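Notebook entry, structure prediction.
Reason for the run: the old model in the group folder had no record of what sequence produced it. Starting over properly, with the input documented here first.
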Amino acid sequence: MKLKIGLIWRIVIAIALAVLLGTWVPEGFVRLFATFNSIFGSFLSFIVPLIIVAFIAPGIAKLGKGSGKMLGIATVAAYSSTLFAGFLAFFAGSTILPGFLKGKEISNLADPEEGLASGFFELAIPAPMEIMTALVLAFVLGIGMASIGSRSMLPLFDEFNAIIEKVISYIIIPLLPIHIFGIFLNMTFAGHVAKVLSVFALVFVLIIVLHWIMLFIQYVTAGTLTGKNPFFLIKTMLPAYLTAIGTQSSAATIPVTLRQARKTGASSRVTDFAVPLFATIHLSGSTITIVTCAIGVLILNGQAIVFSAFLPFIFMLGVMMIAAPGVPGGAVMTAIGLLGTMLHFDQTMIALMIALYLAQDSFGTATNVTGDGALAIIVDRFSPGETKS
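New structure, fully documented this time:
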């Protein structure tokens, strides 16, 4: 029987091996992985605009179809929840993390003078378009396909979507542990790894706490609007949370989320429509993780946390999350372009973001799907002409 190791454990093993080997392997070995990281980083820069177009364009086009007012209410609820999660993470992270992470800064993670080994060579892979160009193009195409009720272009974009998702699933995700191994090997070689791991631990704890706070707020809101006990609602949805931790997939958890959402008293018609939709467009837990991790990486890199930079980032991140691919790490893959263009992350910082994100991906997914139940209750409250079951 073939033993299959999950992505999270592959990441953990990669970091552990890098920490063990980085103190005694020769510089040439470190430079070999630095070369791989340079090439892999270039490929990521190349693929990110394609990810944006492949997922956002058909995602917006498909949102143009559906059950009219209910679809509008569900979309507004999902986007509002995601925005709230982003701002919650920003204000909590920017208030708490600087004090706890004081003295752990590394002046520039990508500076060879800080002791990091450089690669043997670089292979530039120019991106087909700029990130913002891809985003605007995706909006134009998506809105256009929705407005004309496209029957020919939408299937084409669905196939393009499937191709890019396979690139993520079969190339990027399998190579990520090697990429992260190379990053942590280089940091261990340079003597930075102790600071990095201590930052990881503190950020991880804050993220989990913020996830729980977000769920509490969502269910208090749902309970207040419907006159139901929020603790009863949370208890009812707990099986979905635990299932998502195990599966690390919103899609795989849909049957459990549906069953538990119906037990909250929301109508079957609304839950059958809203829960599968929210599994795609509502990623409040992932948003908390991305924003908090970004703050942690910026502090580690010795950079200031500026609200004016995060404000447009969070608004755009909310849009990107609507069409994030449903594979492990899909949300952070979609966010890479924004991290580079809006927060000016370099390849090393993005690699740290990916490692931080994937370390708790199952908890973020669990928060996403559990929050779907609260939003389904809210949509049920405001959807007209529903017969409660």
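Summary: The chain has one domain: 7-382.
The old model has been moved to the deprecated folder.
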